Structures are given as structure tokens and as C-alpha cells.
Amino acid sequence: MSILTANMSTKDVLDGLGSGGKGEAFPRRKAMRRLQSSYNDEVNKLLSEMASNYQSLLEAAALPGDSTARAHDAETFHISAALRVKTHTEALVRAGRELLLLIAALKRDRCLAQSAAMNAAVDAARSSAANATQDASDSLDELASRVDELLASLETEYYVSME
């Protein structure tokens, strides 16, 4: 089983939902923190298991009695401890892969967000330019109509003064 909790699959992590975190402000970041915490817990378990195994081997070697029996017991214990360490290590490798996938998803999301922001800025600039162009065109039309009115009034005054 993955070191993820029972209610949090890799797909949930990559979807950014974690354990049903719909509506969270930053669901992928929260999922990543949960996964990192789980990963750190697994590392701590592995280290304590290794320390415990080492201590037990030292104690077994110090017991009085038949050295062959002690060696056999120590070897059996060492094999079972090695299998437990291997299981923990495999879980750590899986968790590491899941973290890398999550980091890649976060980077992809950041790139998409930056792209969306740039597209929005370009659209806003285009809209602003179109509005400014329309305003300038309206102002020119108004100015042209005023000039036409002024010319018509000047022409009328000229003809009136000529009579």
C-alpha cells in the first residue's frame, strides 16, 4: 500500500482534491503538504525501525548461551528486519515518485495560470486600445461636424455681407 492515507489516492493528489478538499483555496498545495508529512513520517518510521533492529541485534549477540543458536537467532532476526526495511524503502520510493508527480502538476498549473494571466492582460490591452480608437474616432467625427458647421456659418456670413 502506498504511504498515502486510505482516503487519499495518487489521483486525488494529482487532481488536487486531497481528502475531498473541494473548494479549498490551494488544494494541490495542501495535498502536497499532507503527502510530504506522510513521507516524513515514513522516513522517521524507517529510521526508528533500523535503530531498533540494530539495538536488538546487539542485545541478541550479548545473550549467554550457545553461540550457534545465538548466531542463528540473530541471522533470522536480521533477515526479517531487512525485509521490513525493504518494505519501508519501497514505500519511500513510491512516495518520492508521488511527490515528483505532484510537483510537476504544480509547475504545470503555475505555467497555465501565468499563461492565462498574460492572455487576460493582452485581451484587456486590446479592449482598451479598441475603446481608445473608438473614442478618438468619435472625437474626430465630432470635430469634423463642428468644422463643417463653422464653415457653413462663415459661408453664410460671407454671402450676407456681400449683399
Automatic annotation (TrEMBL):
One GO molecular-function entry: transcription coregulator activity
Secretion signal span: none
GO biological process: regulation of transcription by RNA polymerase II
Pfam families from the UniProt entry: Med22
Keywords in alphabetical order: Nucleus, Transcription, Transcription regulation
Keyword NADP: no
Coiled coil spans: none
Cellular component aspect of the GO annotation: mediator complex
Subcellular location, record wording: Nucleus
Record carries keyword Transcription regulation: yes
Alphabetical list of InterPro entries matching this protein: Med22 (IPR009332)
Protein's name in the database: Mediator of RNA polymerase II transcription subunit 22
Organism: Thecamonas trahens ATCC 50062
